[in-house]
Specification:
It holds the Pfam family QueG_DUF1730. The chain is α+β, with helices and mostly antiparallel strands. It has eleven helices and ten strands. About 30% of the residues lie in helices and about 15% in strands. A four-stranded antiparallel β-sheet has the order 1-2-7-4, with helices on both faces. The chain has a two-stranded parallel sheet with strand order 3-10. It is globular and about 65 Å long.
């Protein structure tokens, strides 16, 4: 049994690399006992803001066996999205999170995971399972940590020693027994750069982010007007925010991604502040046709741009 579990895990990891994933690890499908009290406290303190979906399916979020019958293994993959060239981020430029430069990662990773699942069926046989990319209550970072792909930093993003933290996470939950990897050490040490750099003080303590105070929350998730008490603190971010990752020393190891789908639309690189301020529905649809920026819709983007204007 062990030999088969070991063999299958190696097969799957090799194929994951062939499909373009940067890292692949395996964890035993089990109850996330450590995360349960932390998630409960986070929700009770209202740190999810208007992200009501975070409070849904609490039990499923903590136990993959409630998502896939007889689940035995959680395969986690990482896909680097760090760009070869960042968009202009000067004092007079509007800023978009690097993860949203190109094609929405949901499409890219789902296709690769579907191909990986097909390969498993072809090479191993009848295996029950599902692919997940933010499409269900799965605690991505917890599973990546359990699979030894990194540790959760003080900014609550997963950090990998080889490529930093600019990557997407996806999973396959299978009813197949695989040899599990073990977690690695936390290498944040005494560093507090992410905490010190957050302009809205969203990182309320090491390893705790109040989501309702995060610039990414305000510019993407919040559908109401942005509270006036945070005006002047956004540093021109109009979709998402990379500050806590940009200042992280581990991201000196970030390498340009090899996924052409993540390249920004050609017109985006030349966008000026005036272009953003005068963006039309037609331009928005063309440039962000398959981009995560579509989530905020044009009205939301215009709200964010106006909020960053001096009063």
């Amino acid at each position: 049994m062990y030999a088969a579990a070991n063999h299958y895990a190696k097969l799957i990891k090799t194929k994951a690399t062939e499909l373009g994933f940067d890292f692949c690890g395996v964890a035993k499908a089990d109850f996330l006992a450590d995360e349960a009290p932390r998630l409960e406290t986070w929700l009770k303190n209202g740190m999810h803001g208007q992200m009501n979906y975070m409070a849904n399916h609490f039990d499923k979020r903590l136990d993959p066996r409630l998502l896939v019958d007889d689940a035995k293994s959680v395969i986690t993959v990482l896909l680097n999205y760090y760009p070869e060239q960042t968009l202009p981020e000067g004092d007079d430029d509007f800023k978009v999170s690097k993860y949203a430069y190109g094609t929405d990662y949901h499409f890219v990773i789902k296709e690769k995971l579907t191909n990986l699942l097909t390969y498993i069926h072809e090479e191993i046989g009848e295996v029950g399972g599902r692919a997940f990319v933010d499409s269900a209550p799965v605690m991505d970072k917890a599973w990546a940590k359990r699979a030894g792909l990194g540790w959760v930093g003080k900014h609550t993003n997963l950090i990998n020693r080889e490529i930093g933290s600019f990557f997407f996470i996806g999973e396959l939950i299978l009813d197949l027994e695989l040899e599990a990897d073990g977690p690695i050490t936390d290498y944040c040490g005494t560093c507090t750069r992410c905490i010190d750099a957050c302009p809205t003080d969203a990182i309320v303590g090491p390893y705790v982010v109040d989501g309702s105070k995060c610039i990414s929350y305000f510019t993407i998730e919040l559908k109401d007007a942005i509270p006036t008490d945070v005006r002047g603190q956004f540093d021109n971010w109009i979709f998402g925010c990379d500050i806590c990752q940009d200042v992280c020393p581990w991201n000196r190891f970030a390498k340009p991604n090899k996924t052409s789908a993540f390249d920004p639309h050609p017109d985006l690189a030349a966008f000026t502040k005036t272009d953003w301020e005068e963006i039309t529905e037609e331009v928005f649809r063309e440039i962000f046709r398959r981009s995560a920026v579509k989530r905020t819709k044009l009205d939301g983007l215009k709200r964010n741009i106006a909020f960053n204007q001096p009063t």
